[in-house]
């Protein structure tokens, strides 16, 4: 029997929409601040602030070093995701970045096969085909595919790997606070080390850039994470996945309106194909045979 109240379900859905919207807003917000701070330094400051904000809860844990090994592995994927995505925004548009990041859906079946020998389904194949066709339209094909698009594609691959390994550790009943905290400070450490190796300035020019970094640290990085965890207690995994397909849509809407980026119908059509591929990718997780028997749909 489902003990979840309608009010709890409503608030969980609102929370998930908040996550999708706030994550979607980060692309244009981040791009607007990159004239004032090195992109790798931005990632480092963003995550060290998030780690500091999480520290009071960490200090309440008896074994504060628990999950450091798991956090290290996950931080490598997370650092790759945010560094390549942020650097990529220097060269590509916010709308392109949002849609290409959504291509993480086509890497999941690839990594599932490589790591767990699970063969992709036909729906997953269709999802990948739609997403690839969408990226072709979005970027203008091989000739229009720039270094920013390529870096964002690497970010999408890192995103999918991070999801798969996070799922593994969370199902092993890892403490989510410690798991996230160790990822945050380790991503910051990797970012600052890389910035120093590149000879990048650690300075942030202007109050506006600091405002953007603090916004990124508090809302899409810290609060959205906890809201997502709480919301998933009251929402079916399939619903969570469908709502999260709206992230690139929000990214494009913010870019075309608030960010003043040019709306190009062909690129918008490409983005639509990518989002369609994401939705089909979520559908591929459903067990329709069990659904026909009115059983719970596992994801």
What does this structure look like?
The protein is mostly helical and 299 residues long. It has one domain. Helix content is 75%, strand content 0%. The longest helix has 28 residues. The two termini are 19 Å apart. The C terminus is likely disordered.
Defining traits:
299 residues, mainly alpha, 75% helix
The number of distinct β-strands equals 0
* Overall mean pLDDT: 86
Apparent shape: globular
Calculate the terminal CA-CA distance, rounded to whole Å: 19 Å
Major pleated sheet? none
Give the oligomeric state: single chain
Please state the structural category. mainly alpha
Number of helical runs?
13
Helix content class: over 70%
Radius of gyration: 19 Å
Sequence of secondary-structure elements: HHHHHHHHHHHHH
**How many structural domains can be distinguished in the coordinates?**
1
Low-confidence spans: pLDDT under 50, at least 5 residues?
288-299
The portion of residues forming beta strands comes to: under 5%
Summarize the structure.
The chain is built from 13 helices and no strands. The protein has helices spanning 6-33, 39-58, 68-88, 94-101, 104-116, 122-139, 147-171, 176-198, 207-231, 237-244, 247-256, 265-283, 288-292.
């Amino acid at each position: 029997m489902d003990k979840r109240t309608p009010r709890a379900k409503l608030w969980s859905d609102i929370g998930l929409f908040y996550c999708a919207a706030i994550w979607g807003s980060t692309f244009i917000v981040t791009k607007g601040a990159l004239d004032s701070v090195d992109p790798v330094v931005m990632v480092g400051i963003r995550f060290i602030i998030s780690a500091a904000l999480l520290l009071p809860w960490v200090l309440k844990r008896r074994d504060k070093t628990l999950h450091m090994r798991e956090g290290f592995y996950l931080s490598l994927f997370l650092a790759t995701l945010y560094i390549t995505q942020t650097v990529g925004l220097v060269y590509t548009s916010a709308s392109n970045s949002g849609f290409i990041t959504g291509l993480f859906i086509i890497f999941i079946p690839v990594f599932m096969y490589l790591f767990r020998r699970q063969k992709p389904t036909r729906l997953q194949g269709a999802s990948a085909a739609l997403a690839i066709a969408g990226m072709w339209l979005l970027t203008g094909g091989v000739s229009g595919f720039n270094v920013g698009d390529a870096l964002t594609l690497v970010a999408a691959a890192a995103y999918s790997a991070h999801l798969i390994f996070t799922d593994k550790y969370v199902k092993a009943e890892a403490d989510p606070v410690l798991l996230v905290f160790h990822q945050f400070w380790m991503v910051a450490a990797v970012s600052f080390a890389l910035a120093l190796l590149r000879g990048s300035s650690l300075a942030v020019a202007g109050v506006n850039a600091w405002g953007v970094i603090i916004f990124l640290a508090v809302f899409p990085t810290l609060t959205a994470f906890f809201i997502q965890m709480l919301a998933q207690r009251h929402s079916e995994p399939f619903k969570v996945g469908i709502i999260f397909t709206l992230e690139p849509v929000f990214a494009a809407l913010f870019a075309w309106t608030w960010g003043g980026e040019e709306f190009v119908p062909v690129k918008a059509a490409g983005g639509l194909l990518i989002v369609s591929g994401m939705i089909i990718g979520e559908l591929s997780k459903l067990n329709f045979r069990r659904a026909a028997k009115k059983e719970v749909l596992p994801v």
